[in-house]
From TrEMBL:
<dbReference type="Pfam" id="PF17482">
    <property type="entry name" value="Phage_sheath_1C"/>
</dbReference>
<feature type="domain" description="Tail sheath protein C-terminal">
    <location>
        <begin position="354"/>
        <end position="460"/>
    </location>
</feature>
<protein>
    <submittedName>
        <fullName>Phage tail sheath family protein</fullName>
    </submittedName>
</protein>
<comment type="similarity">
    <text>Belongs to the myoviridae tail sheath protein family.</text>
</comment>
<dbReference type="InterPro" id="IPR020287">
    <property type="entry name" value="Tail_sheath_C"/>
</dbReference>
<dbReference type="InterPro" id="IPR052042">
    <property type="entry name" value="Tail_sheath_structural"/>
</dbReference>
Length: 465
């Protein structure tokens, strides 16, 4: 009680509600890769909220050089056009961010590790340094490094993937999204076999998920103007106007007043779309599902926006091996279904044989609960390690889990079936624990799991005789 000495009226507010737990963010990703501009500097995490903000800070996509080849045509008719990219750049982070926002993404962190280079260099050391810079950003809950797949050496890809999973295991507050490299294998079974053998290790698999195959998107390459479009046609190269040399560009066609040909070429150029690995779109799906349903809902059976089709068609037989394998390294498929479009058709972590954490939603939900509770009970550090403190902590955690149960995150007809909290002397702590300043609490939860296999028994009743 305060020592009142002066006559007057004193007000003492008495709190009636216990301390509460706020749910931490679950879908704020960090993207690591190469950008046009350095923003606030290389290896510095910058929070953005839109693609426009990304463009303002980090620039746009790498300007690709394209070539248009003209086939022979009858007199008076236009030739057929074949457009190609002789040497595509490995810098695809901008397109991945576009897919992230087009599929429901929100706030995210960008860590630039370098700027575009004409040598098309993707450096393992730079990506590792960017990953290390991400470690100190507490808000990050998802990790994606889309340009890992463009590393030349298989060992470098494996090292980066393993480093992502190791960081997730160390901090236990984030989850890694991995792409499955396709290096001329063709068949999806060979792609999966090589990934499991050469591109990911055997540790920390419950903290990540892999997705395949590459996707044909509706995004167009950044041509950065007609100067980067060369015309490979001997008939046009013979024309010399205003000092033009043999390097005929698309703009020259317009100057030469070949308007129909110019329009034909530009039409074909717009048909060339960007093919991307799925990590950017998948992270967007995670954000969308978390915001609309909750982190306990599996990020699967969701349609992908801005996707024409997967580049490798996967059927039920193919997915049998992707989903369940003796190695436990499950790979989630992206498939096209008639009348439904392109869907994410898998919900497993890389540790697909783990009974506890085989599902992405379970692992990420537990991450959220652990971090939310850990941050909330920090206020009790140095408080008396007695029954009063234990009661406050237990009540706070029970209220938090009760809310989650009501939202459908925990299964059970009654709260006591859904969760239980143990905290106290001779329950979770001994006298020695208390003497040494340890407060130990056990939280048990019945987390909902996705209905991965729905089995329907059908009985046909025949006409009685």
């Amino acid at each position: 009680m305060p020592d009142y000495r002066t006559p007057g009226v004193y007000i003492n507010e008495i709190p009636h509600f216990p301390p509460s737990i706020s749910q931490v963010e679950t879908a704020i990703p960090a993207f690591i890769g190469y950008t046009e501009k350095s923003g606030d500097g290389l290896f510095i995490a910058k929070r953005i909220t839109s693609l426009i903000e990304f463009e303002q800070i980090y620039g746009i996509a790498y300007p690709e050089r394209m070539e248009a080849k003209l086939s022979d045509a009858a007199l008076g008719s236009l030739p057929k056009i074949e457009v190609s990219i002789p040497s595509a750049s490995p810098y695809l982070l901008y397109y991945q961010i576009s897919m992230f926002y087009n599929n429901g993404g929100g706030p995210c962190y960008i860590i630039a590790v370098g700027n575009y280079d004409s040598t098309f260099n993707v450096d393992k050391t730079a990506l590792l340094k960017g990953l290390e810079a991400c470690k100190v950003v507490d808000e990050v809950a998802l990790l994606a490094i889309p340009e890992i797949v463009n590393l030349i050496e298989d060992e470098d890809i494996k090292e980066l993937n393993d480093a992502m999973l190791a960081q997730c295991n160390l901090l236990k507050d984030r989850f890694a999204i991995l792409d499955v490299p396709e290096k001329n294998e063709g068949k999806i079974s060979l792609v999966a076999e090589k990934f499991r053998k050469d591109f990911v290790g055997a540790d920390n698999l419950k903290f990540g998920a892999a997705y395949t195959p590459k996707l044909e998107t509706i995004l167009n390459y950044n041509r950065a103007g007609d100067d980067l479009i060369s015309i490979n046609d001997q008939r046009i190269k013979k024309i010399k106007v205003n000092g033009l040399d043999d390097n005929i560009k698309l703009a020259d066609i317009k100057i030469l007043n070949y308007v129909d040909l110019y329009n034909l070429i530009t039409t074909e150029l717009h048909k060339i779309s960007v093919s991307l690995y799925p990590s950017g779109a998948i992270v967007g799906v995670y954000s969308l599902v978390d915001s609309t349903r909750g982190v306990w809902k599996a990020p699967a059976n969701v349609s992908l926006n801005d996707v024409v089709k997967p580049l490798i068609k996967i059927d039920n037989a193919d997915q049998d091996d992707l989903n369940i394998t003796p190695t436990g390294k499950s790979i989630n498929a992206i498939r096209t279904f008639t009348g439904k479009g392109t869907l994410v058709w898998g919900a497993r972590t890389l540790n697909g044989n783990d009974n506890e954490y085989r599902y992405i939603s379970v692992r990420r939900f537990v991450n959220m609960v652990e971090e939310s509770i850990a941050k909330a009970i920090q206020q009790f550090i140095f408080e008396p390690n007695d029954a009063n403190t234990w009661s406050k902590i237990k009540s706070m955690c029970e209220n938090f889990l009760l809310i989650l149960w009501k939202q459908g995150a925990l299964q059970g007809a009654k709260p006591e079936d859904a969760f239980a909290i143990r905290l106290g002397l001779n329950s979770t702590m001994s006298s020695l624990d208390i003497l040494e300043g340890r407060l130990i609490m056990q939280v048990m939860m019945a987390v909902v799991r996705p209905a991965e296999f729905i089995i329907v028994s059908i009985t046909l009743r025949m006409q009685e005789s």
